[in-house]
Amino acid sequence: MLVGSSSALLMAQPSDGPDRGRMIYREHCMECHGETGKGDGPRAPFLSPRPGNLVSAATSAKTDTELLRTIAQGKPRTAMPAWQDRLALDDQQAALRYIRSLVQFSRSSPSSPPAP
User: Fold this and answer.
1) 9-58 tens-digit pLDDT
2) Is residue 116 predicted with pLDDT exceeding 80?
């Protein structure tokens, strides 16, 4: 299965289940981004600016290439470190796949017409 854009394709390995990405996320990301990726981890209140909401529409709209660049290079003037020298590329990709799995789309129930 291919996931991503033309400049950085993510190859899902058969042995690369969601547990690997979850483990990497829990070890390296959850303290700031929170269990569900909403930027509400235990360290978040002490960081300025606050960690990004990984399940927001703005983040979800970013390409895998953009998000991998942020994971690899970090974000200047924030607590987001560069992981390129700390995590192998396949670990960065596994973390991204897990982050993408956190986004849960739900249908809103149709609203009732206003009462006359």
Assistant:
1) 444 444 556 799 999 999 999 999 999 999 999 999 999 999 999 999 99
2) no
**pTM flag (> 0.85):** no
Cα separation, 91 vs 27, in Å, equals: 12
- DSSP assignment, residue 48? S
Residue type at 37 in one-letter notation? G
Run of H or E including 89: helix 89-102
> What's the token pair of residue 62?
């970013």
Domains of the chain: residue spans and CATH: 2-102 (1.10.760.10)
Rounded to the nearest 10°, the torsion over CA 45, 51, 55, 61 is 150
Which tokens is 55 given? 């399940």
Task: Classify residue 108 by its DSSP letter.
Answer: P
